[in-house]
Amino acid sequence: MGKSLHPKVKEFKGFVKKHPKIIKDVRNGDANWQDLFEDWYLLGEDDTRWDKYRTESEKENEKTSTNSESKGGWMDQVGEMVKKMDANQLQQHINSLSEALGTVQGVLSQFQSGNNRGSGTATKTEAPSKPSHPFSFRKD
Predict the structure, then answer these.
(1) Residue 12 CB coordination number (10 Å)
(2) What is the CB-side half-sphere exposure of residue 56 using CA atoms within 13 A?
(3) Where is the composition biased (Basic and acidic residues) (predicted)?
């Protein structure tokens, strides 16, 4: 009995002690330790899979902590920035972005039409003879 437990097993035992409802589920046969450990190991302690085992006070603490943090990621941050922006400023930014995109499209269309006009019929006949592979391999 001199074996010590793996550190992750010790962490899982601590997690189970914080959530006694897990023990009840295992004893009732609704869950088994192996599956619970694997889920805990892969998903982590904060996953929604553990919500049914949390007490009401833990759920409230989690809600307040996630509201202060940015759990939703960058989309929430963008949403907050849009809320803080003035509507006129937002319209100006959208207009300038639209103009910039229009300019880029115009430049690209000029390059495309320039390539088609300058190429003539010589490249049109050469195009089918080129290999369809993007890489050419040569023998030494």
Answers:
(1) 19
(2) 0
(3) 53-63
Total domains in the fold of the chain? 2
Same domain, 41 and 79: no
Distance between CA atoms of residues 54 and 116, nearest Å: 66
Q: What is the pLDDT of residue 76?
A: 78
Hey, how many other C-beta atoms are within 10 angstroms of the C-beta on 49? 14
Query: Could you tell me if 3 and 41 lie in one domain?
Result: yes
- Average pLDDT, integer, range 27-46: 88
Q: Assess whether pLDDT exceeds 50 at residue 47.
A: yes
Measured distance CA(98)–CA(103) in Å, rounded: 9
Q: In which domain, by residue range, is 14 found?
A: 1-57
Asked if residue 45 and residue 6 are part of one domain, the reply reads: yes
Q: Is 48 found in the same domain as 13?
A: yes
pLDDT in tens, 61-73: 555 555 555 456 7
Number of Cβ atoms within 10 Å of the Cβ of 69: 9
Structure tokens that stand for 55 in this block? 């007490």
Q: Mean pLDDT for the chain?
A: 74
